[in-house]
TrEMBL record:
It is a multi-pass membrane protein. One of its GO terms (molecular function) is pentosyltransferase activity. One of its GO terms (biological process) is lipopolysaccharide biosynthetic process. PANTHER family: MANNOSYLTRANSFERASE YKCB-RELATED, MEMBRANE PROTEIN. The chain crosses the membrane at residues 12-28, 87-104, 110-128, 159-187, 199-219, 259-277, 289-309, 315-334, 341-358. This is Dolichyl-phosphate-mannose-protein mannosyltransferase. The lineage of its organism: Bacteria, Pseudomonadati, Bacteroidota, Flavobacteriia, Flavobacteriales. The keyword Transmembrane helix applies. It is found in: Cell membrane. It comes from the Bacteria.
Amino acid sequence: MINFLKKISFKQILFFLVCVLVVEFLLLKHTPFFWDAITKSSRASWIYANGLTEFIVPTEYNSGHPPLWISLLAIFWTIFEKALWSSRLLLLIVNVGVAWQIVLFCKTNFLKTVSAFAVFIVCLEPTFIAQTTNLNNDMLLLFFTFLGLNSLIKSRTIFFTLALVGLLLVNLRGVYIVVSIALIHVIYVRLKLIESRKLIYISYLIAVFSFAVFCYFQYEKLGWFLISQNENYNAHRQSVGVKQVLINSIVYVKSFLEYGRFIIAIILLPLLVKYIKDKTNRDVKIDRVAIAFFVLAFIFFIGMVPFSNPFGDRYFMVCYLLAIVLLVNLMAHYDVAKKTVVYAVMVVMFITGHFWIYPATLSQSWDSSLAYLNSYTVEAKMERFIDSSGIEPTEIGTRILLNAREFSEFKDISEADRYADFNINTNQFILLSNIDNQTKDDELNEIMTNWKLVQHYSQLGVFMSLYKRE
Protein backbone atom coordinates (compact mmCIF):
# COMPACT_ATOMS: atom_id res chain seq x y z
CA MET A 1 0.00 0.00 0.00
CA ILE A 2 2.78 2.41 0.96
CA ASN A 3 4.66 1.63 -2.26
CA PHE A 4 1.48 2.36 -4.23
CA LEU A 5 1.07 5.74 -2.54
CA LYS A 6 4.68 6.63 -3.38
CA LYS A 7 3.95 6.11 -7.08
CA ILE A 8 1.08 8.61 -7.15
CA SER A 9 1.94 11.64 -9.30
CA PHE A 10 1.20 15.31 -8.67
CA LYS A 11 -1.12 15.34 -11.69
CA GLN A 12 -3.14 12.49 -10.21
CA ILE A 13 -3.32 14.35 -6.90
CA LEU A 14 -4.58 17.49 -8.65
CA PHE A 15 -7.17 15.49 -10.61
CA PHE A 16 -8.46 13.90 -7.40
CA LEU A 17 -8.63 17.26 -5.61
CA VAL A 18 -10.59 18.79 -8.48
CA CYS A 19 -13.05 15.87 -8.36
CA VAL A 20 -13.50 16.36 -4.61
CA LEU A 21 -14.13 20.08 -5.12
CA VAL A 22 -16.73 19.35 -7.82
CA VAL A 23 -18.53 16.94 -5.48
CA GLU A 24 -18.37 19.56 -2.74
CA PHE A 25 -19.94 22.09 -5.11
CA LEU A 26 -22.79 19.70 -5.95
CA LEU A 27 -23.45 18.94 -2.28
CA LEU A 28 -23.36 22.56 -1.13
CA LYS A 29 -24.62 24.45 -4.18
CA HIS A 30 -27.62 25.79 -2.25
CA THR A 31 -25.76 26.55 1.01
CA PRO A 32 -26.16 30.24 1.97
CA PHE A 33 -23.52 32.89 2.53
CA PHE A 34 -22.28 32.71 6.11
CA TRP A 35 -21.12 35.27 8.64
CA ASP A 36 -18.70 37.86 7.15
CA ALA A 37 -19.47 36.57 3.66
CA ILE A 38 -22.98 38.03 4.00
CA THR A 39 -21.56 41.55 3.87
CA LYS A 40 -19.74 40.62 0.64
CA SER A 41 -23.06 39.49 -0.80
CA SER A 42 -24.71 42.79 0.18
CA ARG A 43 -22.01 44.79 -1.60
CA ALA A 44 -22.10 42.52 -4.64
CA SER A 45 -25.88 42.95 -4.71
CA TRP A 46 -25.45 46.73 -4.91
CA ILE A 47 -23.07 46.36 -7.87
CA TYR A 48 -25.45 43.89 -9.52
CA ALA A 49 -28.47 46.15 -8.96
CA ASN A 50 -26.60 49.01 -10.66
CA GLY A 51 -26.00 46.92 -13.77
CA LEU A 52 -22.21 46.64 -13.26
CA THR A 53 -21.87 50.36 -13.97
CA GLU A 54 -20.33 51.12 -10.56
CA PHE A 55 -17.80 49.04 -8.62
CA ILE A 56 -17.17 51.39 -5.69
CA VAL A 57 -20.02 50.75 -3.25
CA PRO A 58 -21.41 53.55 -1.03
CA THR A 59 -19.95 54.23 2.41
CA GLU A 60 -23.00 52.72 4.13
CA TYR A 61 -21.91 49.29 2.80
CA ASN A 62 -18.18 49.88 2.34
CA SER A 63 -15.54 48.52 4.73
CA GLY A 64 -12.68 49.92 2.65
CA HIS A 65 -11.67 46.65 1.01
CA PRO A 66 -11.06 46.61 -2.76
CA PRO A 67 -13.96 45.26 -4.83
CA LEU A 68 -12.52 42.39 -6.93
CA TRP A 69 -14.35 39.51 -5.21
CA ILE A 70 -17.70 41.29 -4.95
CA SER A 71 -17.38 42.44 -8.57
CA LEU A 72 -16.78 38.86 -9.70
CA LEU A 73 -19.88 37.75 -7.79
CA ALA A 74 -21.96 40.46 -9.48
CA ILE A 75 -20.57 39.49 -12.90
CA PHE A 76 -21.41 35.81 -12.35
CA TRP A 77 -24.94 36.74 -11.27
CA THR A 78 -25.29 38.81 -14.44
CA ILE A 79 -24.02 36.03 -16.70
CA PHE A 80 -26.03 33.26 -15.06
CA GLU A 81 -28.56 34.31 -12.41
CA LYS A 82 -28.45 35.79 -8.96
CA ALA A 83 -28.50 32.52 -7.08
CA LEU A 84 -26.48 30.52 -4.60
CA TRP A 85 -25.43 27.97 -7.20
CA SER A 86 -23.87 30.61 -9.46
CA SER A 87 -22.05 32.12 -6.47
CA ARG A 88 -20.70 28.70 -5.62
CA LEU A 89 -19.72 28.10 -9.23
CA LEU A 90 -17.40 31.08 -8.93
CA LEU A 91 -16.05 29.67 -5.66
CA LEU A 92 -15.51 26.29 -7.35
CA ILE A 93 -13.40 27.91 -10.07
CA VAL A 94 -11.33 29.75 -7.45
CA ASN A 95 -10.98 26.56 -5.38
CA VAL A 96 -9.67 24.66 -8.41
CA GLY A 97 -7.17 27.45 -9.00
CA VAL A 98 -6.00 27.25 -5.38
CA ALA A 99 -5.62 23.46 -5.59
CA TRP A 100 -3.58 23.87 -8.78
CA GLN A 101 -1.25 26.42 -7.15
CA ILE A 102 -0.82 24.39 -3.95
CA VAL A 103 0.03 21.26 -5.92
CA LEU A 104 2.50 23.28 -8.01
CA PHE A 105 4.05 24.78 -4.86
CA CYS A 106 4.44 21.34 -3.29
CA LYS A 107 5.87 19.87 -6.48
CA THR A 108 8.47 22.65 -6.60
CA ASN A 109 9.32 22.67 -2.90
CA PHE A 110 8.91 19.11 -1.64
CA LEU A 111 12.19 17.25 -1.19
CA LYS A 112 12.75 14.46 -3.71
CA THR A 113 12.13 11.83 -1.05
CA VAL A 114 8.68 13.23 -0.25
CA SER A 115 5.78 11.52 -1.99
CA ALA A 116 3.23 13.58 -3.90
CA PHE A 117 0.68 11.92 -1.61
CA ALA A 118 1.83 14.32 1.14
CA VAL A 119 -0.14 17.04 -0.66
CA PHE A 120 -3.22 15.45 0.91
CA ILE A 121 -1.82 16.16 4.36
CA VAL A 122 -1.44 19.81 3.38
CA CYS A 123 -4.96 20.05 1.96
CA LEU A 124 -6.54 18.42 5.01
CA GLU A 125 -5.79 21.53 7.07
CA PRO A 126 -9.16 22.29 8.74
CA THR A 127 -9.43 26.02 8.05
CA PHE A 128 -8.43 25.49 4.42
CA ILE A 129 -11.16 22.89 3.98
CA ALA A 130 -13.70 25.14 5.69
CA GLN A 131 -12.85 28.05 3.41
CA THR A 132 -13.40 25.95 0.29
CA THR A 133 -17.06 25.91 1.41
CA ASN A 134 -17.35 29.56 2.41
CA LEU A 135 -18.41 32.31 -0.02
CA ASN A 136 -15.89 34.81 1.29
CA ASN A 137 -12.89 36.30 -0.50
CA ASP A 138 -10.21 34.34 1.39
CA MET A 139 -9.80 31.58 -1.20
CA LEU A 140 -9.26 34.16 -3.94
CA LEU A 141 -6.66 35.84 -1.72
CA LEU A 142 -5.01 32.44 -1.14
CA PHE A 143 -4.95 31.77 -4.89
CA PHE A 144 -3.08 34.98 -5.62
CA THR A 145 -0.73 34.36 -2.66
CA PHE A 146 0.41 30.97 -3.92
CA LEU A 147 0.45 32.24 -7.50
CA GLY A 148 2.79 34.98 -6.31
CA LEU A 149 5.10 32.59 -4.46
CA ASN A 150 5.19 30.12 -7.34
CA SER A 151 5.80 32.84 -9.92
CA LEU A 152 8.57 34.37 -7.79
CA ILE A 153 10.39 31.06 -7.49
CA LYS A 154 9.99 30.35 -11.22
CA SER A 155 10.69 34.00 -12.23
CA ARG A 156 7.49 34.27 -14.29
CA THR A 157 6.96 38.01 -14.55
CA ILE A 158 3.48 38.06 -16.12
CA PHE A 159 1.98 35.68 -13.54
CA PHE A 160 3.84 37.48 -10.75
CA THR A 161 2.31 40.78 -11.86
CA LEU A 162 -1.14 39.22 -11.99
CA ALA A 163 -0.66 37.83 -8.48
CA LEU A 164 0.43 41.14 -6.95
CA VAL A 165 -2.34 43.12 -8.64
CA GLY A 166 -4.88 40.51 -7.56
CA LEU A 167 -3.69 40.55 -3.96
CA LEU A 168 -4.06 44.32 -3.73
CA LEU A 169 -7.53 44.34 -5.31
CA VAL A 170 -9.13 41.49 -3.31
CA ASN A 171 -8.64 42.54 0.29
CA LEU A 172 -6.63 45.01 2.37
CA ARG A 173 -4.81 42.03 3.87
CA GLY A 174 -3.35 41.71 0.40
CA VAL A 175 -1.19 44.73 1.27
CA TYR A 176 0.46 42.73 4.05
CA ILE A 177 0.96 39.79 1.71
CA VAL A 178 2.53 41.94 -1.02
CA VAL A 179 4.88 43.48 1.56
CA SER A 180 5.69 39.94 2.73
CA ILE A 181 6.38 38.71 -0.80
CA ALA A 182 8.64 41.71 -1.45
CA LEU A 183 10.62 40.92 1.71
CA ILE A 184 10.73 37.22 0.81
CA HIS A 185 11.98 38.24 -2.64
CA VAL A 186 14.83 40.27 -1.15
CA ILE A 187 15.87 37.43 1.18
CA TYR A 188 15.66 34.80 -1.57
CA VAL A 189 17.89 36.85 -3.87
CA ARG A 190 20.37 37.69 -1.13
CA LEU A 191 20.69 34.03 -0.11
CA LYS A 192 20.69 32.94 -3.78
CA LEU A 193 17.64 30.73 -3.32
CA ILE A 194 16.21 31.92 -6.67
CA GLU A 195 17.59 33.48 -9.81
CA SER A 196 17.70 37.27 -9.78
CA ARG A 197 15.93 38.79 -12.77
CA LYS A 198 15.50 42.56 -12.92
CA LEU A 199 12.44 42.43 -15.19
CA ILE A 200 10.31 40.94 -12.40
CA TYR A 201 10.67 44.11 -10.30
CA ILE A 202 8.41 45.88 -12.79
CA SER A 203 5.59 43.77 -11.34
CA TYR A 204 5.71 45.74 -8.10
CA LEU A 205 5.37 49.04 -9.94
CA ILE A 206 2.39 47.82 -11.94
CA ALA A 207 0.71 46.44 -8.80
CA VAL A 208 1.23 49.65 -6.82
CA PHE A 209 -0.05 51.72 -9.73
CA SER A 210 -3.18 49.54 -9.99
CA PHE A 211 -3.83 49.88 -6.28
CA ALA A 212 -3.28 53.66 -6.47
CA VAL A 213 -5.87 53.85 -9.27
CA PHE A 214 -8.39 52.04 -7.07
CA CYS A 215 -7.65 54.38 -4.15
CA TYR A 216 -8.04 57.41 -6.44
CA PHE A 217 -11.46 56.35 -7.74
CA GLN A 218 -12.66 55.45 -4.24
CA TYR A 219 -11.54 58.84 -2.93
CA GLU A 220 -13.14 60.63 -5.88
CA LYS A 221 -16.48 58.96 -5.26
CA LEU A 222 -16.58 58.65 -1.46
CA GLY A 223 -14.13 61.27 -0.18
CA TRP A 224 -12.00 58.64 1.57
CA PHE A 225 -9.95 55.54 0.80
CA LEU A 226 -8.73 52.49 2.77
CA ILE A 227 -9.93 53.76 6.19
CA SER A 228 -13.71 53.47 5.95
CA GLN A 229 -15.84 56.32 7.25
CA ASN A 230 -18.55 53.78 8.08
CA GLU A 231 -18.54 53.77 11.89
CA ASN A 232 -19.23 50.02 12.00
CA TYR A 233 -15.89 49.37 10.29
CA ASN A 234 -13.90 52.43 11.32
CA ALA A 235 -13.83 51.24 14.92
CA HIS A 236 -11.92 48.15 13.80
CA ARG A 237 -9.02 50.17 12.38
CA GLN A 238 -7.91 51.88 15.60
CA SER A 239 -4.62 51.36 17.43
CA VAL A 240 -4.82 49.76 20.89
CA GLY A 241 -2.94 49.95 24.17
CA VAL A 242 -0.36 47.57 25.62
CA LYS A 243 -2.93 45.39 27.41
CA GLN A 244 -4.94 44.79 24.23
CA VAL A 245 -1.73 44.13 22.26
CA LEU A 246 -0.90 41.37 24.74
CA ILE A 247 -4.42 39.94 24.43
CA ASN A 248 -4.24 40.12 20.64
CA SER A 249 -0.86 38.37 20.75
CA ILE A 250 -2.36 35.49 22.70
CA VAL A 251 -5.27 35.29 20.24
CA TYR A 252 -2.78 35.32 17.37
CA VAL A 253 -0.83 32.38 18.79
CA LYS A 254 -4.08 30.57 19.60
CA SER A 255 -5.12 30.85 15.97
CA PHE A 256 -2.08 28.79 14.96
CA LEU A 257 -2.90 26.05 17.47
CA GLU A 258 -6.66 25.66 17.03
CA TYR A 259 -8.63 22.94 15.26
CA GLY A 260 -5.94 20.31 15.70
CA ARG A 261 -3.10 22.48 14.40
CA PHE A 262 -1.26 22.19 17.72
CA ILE A 263 0.07 18.86 16.41
CA ILE A 264 2.05 20.78 13.78
CA ALA A 265 3.75 22.91 16.42
CA ILE A 266 4.55 19.92 18.64
CA ILE A 267 6.36 18.09 15.83
CA LEU A 268 7.70 21.06 13.89
CA LEU A 269 9.40 23.10 16.64
CA PRO A 270 12.09 20.56 17.69
CA LEU A 271 12.87 19.73 14.06
CA LEU A 272 13.10 23.42 13.19
CA VAL A 273 15.42 24.15 16.11
CA LYS A 274 17.64 21.27 15.04
CA TYR A 275 17.67 22.51 11.45
CA ILE A 276 18.55 26.08 12.43
CA LYS A 277 21.43 24.88 14.61
CA ASP A 278 22.72 22.50 11.94
CA LYS A 279 24.23 25.08 9.58
CA THR A 280 26.15 22.51 7.52
CA ASN A 281 23.15 20.47 6.44
CA ARG A 282 20.84 22.88 4.64
CA ASP A 283 18.48 22.44 1.72
CA VAL A 284 17.31 25.19 -0.64
CA LYS A 285 13.71 23.99 -0.66
CA ILE A 286 13.45 23.89 3.11
CA ASP A 287 15.01 27.34 3.34
CA ARG A 288 12.53 28.79 0.85
CA VAL A 289 9.47 27.43 2.64
CA ALA A 290 10.78 28.38 6.10
CA ILE A 291 11.54 31.95 5.01
CA ALA A 292 8.10 32.35 3.41
CA PHE A 293 6.41 31.04 6.57
CA PHE A 294 8.31 33.25 9.02
CA VAL A 295 8.08 36.41 6.93
CA LEU A 296 4.33 36.07 6.38
CA ALA A 297 3.72 35.21 10.06
CA PHE A 298 5.81 38.20 11.18
CA ILE A 299 4.18 40.72 8.83
CA PHE A 300 0.70 39.49 9.78
CA PHE A 301 1.64 39.87 13.44
CA ILE A 302 2.90 43.45 13.25
CA GLY A 303 0.11 44.41 10.84
CA MET A 304 -2.79 43.13 12.94
CA VAL A 305 -1.94 42.69 16.60
CA PRO A 306 -1.52 46.45 17.37
CA PHE A 307 -5.01 47.24 16.05
CA SER A 308 -8.60 46.78 17.19
CA ASN A 309 -9.78 44.80 14.18
CA PRO A 310 -10.79 41.32 15.42
CA PHE A 311 -9.04 38.68 13.35
CA GLY A 312 -10.05 35.13 12.58
CA ASP A 313 -8.12 31.94 11.91
CA ARG A 314 -8.78 32.20 8.18
CA TYR A 315 -6.59 35.31 7.99
CA PHE A 316 -3.46 33.19 8.46
CA MET A 317 -4.44 30.23 6.31
CA VAL A 318 -1.35 30.48 4.09
CA CYS A 319 0.89 30.21 7.17
CA TYR A 320 -0.79 26.98 8.27
CA LEU A 321 -0.29 25.44 4.83
CA LEU A 322 3.35 26.55 4.63
CA ALA A 323 3.97 25.14 8.12
CA ILE A 324 2.71 21.73 7.00
CA VAL A 325 4.90 21.78 3.88
CA LEU A 326 7.86 22.76 6.07
CA LEU A 327 7.09 19.97 8.53
CA VAL A 328 6.81 17.34 5.78
CA ASN A 329 10.16 18.44 4.37
CA LEU A 330 11.95 18.43 7.72
CA MET A 331 10.61 14.98 8.54
CA ALA A 332 12.00 13.74 5.24
CA HIS A 333 15.26 15.67 5.66
CA TYR A 334 15.98 14.00 9.00
CA ASP A 335 14.33 10.72 8.01
CA VAL A 336 12.11 10.77 11.09
CA ALA A 337 11.21 7.29 12.29
CA LYS A 338 7.65 6.05 11.85
CA LYS A 339 6.63 8.89 9.53
CA THR A 340 3.50 6.94 8.57
CA VAL A 341 2.34 6.97 12.19
CA VAL A 342 3.06 10.70 12.50
CA TYR A 343 1.09 11.41 9.32
CA ALA A 344 -1.80 9.30 10.60
CA VAL A 345 -1.87 11.29 13.86
CA MET A 346 -1.87 14.56 11.90
CA VAL A 347 -4.78 13.35 9.77
CA VAL A 348 -6.76 12.40 12.88
CA MET A 349 -6.03 15.77 14.50
CA PHE A 350 -7.08 17.69 11.38
CA ILE A 351 -10.31 15.73 10.98
CA THR A 352 -11.28 15.97 14.65
CA GLY A 353 -10.40 19.68 14.51
CA HIS A 354 -13.78 20.29 12.87
CA PHE A 355 -15.42 19.20 16.13
CA TRP A 356 -13.65 21.75 18.35
CA ILE A 357 -16.49 23.66 19.99
CA TYR A 358 -15.82 26.16 22.78
CA PRO A 359 -18.29 27.12 25.53
CA ALA A 360 -20.76 29.81 24.45
CA THR A 361 -18.94 32.41 26.54
CA LEU A 362 -15.81 32.07 24.37
CA SER A 363 -15.64 33.59 20.89
CA GLN A 364 -14.88 31.18 18.10
CA SER A 365 -13.82 31.51 14.46
CA TRP A 366 -16.87 29.70 13.19
CA ASP A 367 -15.97 30.03 9.52
CA SER A 368 -12.60 28.34 10.13
CA SER A 369 -13.90 24.78 10.49
CA LEU A 370 -16.74 22.78 8.99
CA ALA A 371 -18.60 22.96 12.32
CA TYR A 372 -20.53 25.99 11.05
CA LEU A 373 -22.42 23.85 8.52
CA ASN A 374 -24.38 22.32 11.40
CA SER A 375 -25.97 25.71 12.07
CA TYR A 376 -28.26 25.41 9.02
CA THR A 377 -29.90 22.21 10.28
CA VAL A 378 -30.32 23.63 13.79
CA GLU A 379 -31.71 26.89 12.41
CA ALA A 380 -34.28 25.05 10.27
CA LYS A 381 -35.49 23.02 13.25
CA MET A 382 -35.81 26.09 15.44
CA GLU A 383 -37.74 28.06 12.84
CA ARG A 384 -40.15 25.17 12.31
CA PHE A 385 -40.77 25.12 16.06
CA ILE A 386 -41.30 28.89 16.20
CA ASP A 387 -43.74 28.71 13.30
CA SER A 388 -45.71 25.80 14.83
CA SER A 389 -45.85 27.40 18.29
CA GLY A 390 -47.50 30.57 17.03
CA ILE A 391 -44.75 32.87 18.33
CA GLU A 392 -44.20 35.84 16.05
CA PRO A 393 -40.58 36.46 14.97
CA THR A 394 -41.09 40.15 15.81
CA GLU A 395 -41.42 39.12 19.47
CA ILE A 396 -38.03 37.41 19.44
CA GLY A 397 -34.81 39.34 19.91
CA THR A 398 -31.63 37.85 18.49
CA ARG A 399 -28.20 38.70 17.16
CA ILE A 400 -28.16 35.72 14.81
CA LEU A 401 -28.13 37.03 11.23
CA LEU A 402 -31.60 35.75 10.38
CA ASN A 403 -32.77 39.12 9.03
CA ALA A 404 -29.91 39.15 6.52
CA ARG A 405 -31.38 36.37 4.37
CA GLU A 406 -32.01 38.87 1.61
CA PHE A 407 -28.24 38.61 1.06
CA SER A 408 -27.34 35.24 2.60
CA GLU A 409 -30.05 33.22 0.80
CA PHE A 410 -31.53 35.76 -1.68
CA LYS A 411 -34.94 35.47 0.00
CA ASP A 412 -37.41 38.31 0.45
CA ILE A 413 -38.36 38.73 4.10
CA SER A 414 -41.58 40.47 5.07
CA GLU A 415 -41.70 42.77 8.09
CA ALA A 416 -43.81 40.17 9.91
CA ASP A 417 -41.07 37.57 9.44
CA ARG A 418 -38.26 39.79 10.72
CA TYR A 419 -36.81 39.16 14.15
CA ALA A 420 -36.47 41.97 16.68
CA ASP A 421 -33.12 43.50 17.58
CA PHE A 422 -31.55 41.94 20.64
CA ASN A 423 -32.54 43.88 23.78
CA ILE A 424 -32.49 42.03 27.04
CA ASN A 425 -34.65 44.72 28.69
CA THR A 426 -37.55 44.79 26.22
CA ASN A 427 -37.65 41.43 24.37
CA GLN A 428 -40.24 38.88 25.48
CA PHE A 429 -38.26 36.11 23.82
CA ILE A 430 -34.52 35.78 23.13
CA LEU A 431 -32.99 33.42 20.58
CA LEU A 432 -29.40 32.50 21.46
CA SER A 433 -26.77 30.54 19.57
CA ASN A 434 -23.08 29.90 20.05
CA ILE A 435 -22.68 30.89 16.37
CA ASP A 436 -23.17 34.47 17.62
CA ASN A 437 -19.98 35.95 19.06
CA GLN A 438 -21.45 39.35 19.96
CA THR A 439 -23.57 38.51 23.00
CA LYS A 440 -21.65 39.35 26.17
CA ASP A 441 -21.00 36.87 28.97
CA ASP A 442 -23.18 38.71 31.49
CA GLU A 443 -26.08 38.73 29.01
CA LEU A 444 -25.68 35.00 28.38
CA ASN A 445 -25.55 34.23 32.09
CA GLU A 446 -28.57 36.43 32.82
CA ILE A 447 -30.71 34.77 30.14
CA MET A 448 -29.59 31.19 30.86
CA THR A 449 -30.09 31.66 34.60
CA ASN A 450 -33.22 33.78 34.93
CA TRP A 451 -35.20 33.16 31.74
CA LYS A 452 -37.30 30.10 30.91
CA LEU A 453 -35.90 27.76 28.25
CA VAL A 454 -38.66 27.20 25.68
CA GLN A 455 -36.83 25.07 23.14
CA HIS A 456 -33.28 23.93 22.44
CA TYR A 457 -31.75 22.26 19.39
CA SER A 458 -28.15 21.24 18.84
CA GLN A 459 -26.06 19.29 16.38
CA LEU A 460 -22.41 18.37 16.94
CA GLY A 461 -21.93 21.22 19.37
CA VAL A 462 -23.76 23.97 17.48
CA PHE A 463 -26.91 25.03 19.30
CA MET A 464 -29.84 27.43 19.22
CA SER A 465 -31.94 28.07 22.32
CA LEU A 466 -35.20 30.00 22.59
CA TYR A 467 -35.80 31.66 25.96
CA LYS A 468 -38.86 33.43 27.36
CA ARG A 469 -38.85 36.14 30.00
CA GLU A 470 -40.17 34.78 33.32
